[in-house]
Design brief:
five-stranded mixed β-barrel; alpha+beta; five-stranded mixed beta barrel; OB fold (Dihydrolipoamide Acetyltransferase, E2P); single chain
Length: 405
């Protein structure tokens, strides 16, 4: 009797296990990721890591030229279009799903939530017109993309995958479709993988999706971060459009990750492009020898001198005493203005303190060894920094040009 009870309990446990496994398997309409393990004449077999076989029609792996675009060992993302009732095998379709024909197949796609392929044929009030297997469908403007598209006419002629969100049968069925729903699902699937790699200090690839005055938004793969304008480049950037374009692929470093508690946007991610760029100061002393002439642009002026950008991230200072080439200058703006291109002489390069001394005088001489070794005076209230005072002291030691004649 005990053996019978044990046997019945074992059967119940086995039944529960089989039900649990069946419930965990992907269903029609689910998106799965796998690896192609074999390719036959009509079908390819895919390992999706589940306790079930998956196959896909070979035509789904061909390009427009009829050649296979994937091989054994390649990764594949596909949609489960059906499940074989007898074997439990999963039947996969292309990312856009099978092309339906007739209202019955369209209704089946609607009931199962399967994607269908359609072509945008025109714009109408509030959205676009989509042709799906000869049937007219409507896609609202808010459902055409994840982001607002100002000019919908740019999409005319494009083919996309859509999900049917409303189906009213009849000789001429009334169809409403959404592309946004599928994009959101794909984004969520990518986000799971992206968050596994998302740690501070990580270097990742992304796509520029938007730009504002304060920075650029980067899609890291279903997860969006922002590069502040100060982190776009080594040099000064007035607007992200100076260095980036929408859709551009970029490499970024993750600076910070802050949890927000907002389910729709659970984290704020600070990114940097600047952090990955080589510092121009590392070999500045070799590239800009004392006495050499350099081209640059005035970035700003101060009472004690003018700053000149020699290259992105590398600025030099022309002290006010080096602006007049022998004559007295009361303010740098008497000689230079912001944005002006100038040619200057390199007086000194201090890579440790990241300072370059420049002069407008083509015959300017570098500071003497005594001047360079003497302790710099403290910064005074007038704004003359120690570097500027050092240059000023050198000028005072230099004989007047009028005395040379």
């Amino acid at each position: 009797m005990t053996d019978d009870n044990d046997f019945e309990a074992l059967l119940r446990e086995l039944e529960k296990t089989e039900q649990a496994v069946a419930a965990a398997l992907p269903k029609a309409g689910d998106q799965v990721h796998g690896t192609i393990i074999a390719i036959g004449e009509e079908q390819a077999f895919v390992d999706i890591g589940a306790k079930a076989e998956a196959s896909i029609d070979i035509d789904n792996l061909r390009g427009d030229d009829g050649n296979l675009t994937l091989a054994v060992g390649d990764k594949l993302t596909a949609m489960v279009t059906s499940v074989d009732v007898e074997t439990g095998a999963l039947i996969l379709g292309a990312r856009h799903g099978k092309q339906p024909h007739g209202t019955e197949e369209l209704e089946a796609a609607y009931q199962q939530g399967l994607p269908v392929e359609g072509q945008i044929t025109g714009t109408i009030k509030g959205g676009v017109e989509v042709q799906i297997s000869g049937h007219r469908a409507f896609c609202p403007a808010s459902q055409i993309d994840l982001r607002f598209i100002e000019d919908l006419s740019t999409l005319v002629g494009e083919r996309y995958a859509f999900r049917i969100t409303r189906f009213e049968g009849g000789r001429r069925p009334n169809l409403v479709v959404s592309r946004r729903a599928l994009l959101q699902e794909e984004q969520e699937a990518r986000a799971v993988q992206t968050r596994e790699q998302l740690v501070e200090g990580a270097v990742m690839n992304g796509t520029v999706t938007g730009m504002k005055d304060f920075g650029a938004f980067i899609d890291l793969g279903g997860v969006e971060g922002m590069v502040h304008i100060s982190e776009l480049a080594l040099g000064r950037v007035a607007h992200p459009e100076e260095v980036l374009q929408l859709g551009q692929q970029v490499e970024v470093a993750v600076l910070r990750i802050e949890q927000t508690g907002n389910p729709k946007r659970p984290e704020k991610i600070a990114l940097s492009i600047r952090a990955l760029a080589k510092s121009p100061w590392s070999d500045a002393a070799d590239r800009y020898r004392t006495g050499s002439r350099v081209e640059g642009k005035v970035t700003r002026t101060q009472p004690f001198g003018a700053f000149v950008e020699i290259e992105p991230g590398l600025e030099g200072l022309i002290h006010i005493s080096e602006l007049g080439a022998g004559r007295r200058v009361n303010h740098p703006e008497e000689v230079l203005s912001s944005g002006q291109q100038v040619t200057a002489t390199v007086l000194q390069v201090d890579t440790e303190r990241r300072r370059i001394g420049l002069s407008l005088d083509p015959d300017a001489a570098p500071p003497t060894a005594d001047a360079m070794q003497s302790p710099p005076p403290a910064e005074d209230a007038s704004g003359h920094g120690t570097f500027g005072d050092l240059l000023k002291a050198q000028i005072e030691r230099r004989p007047d040009k009028s005395d040379r004649s």
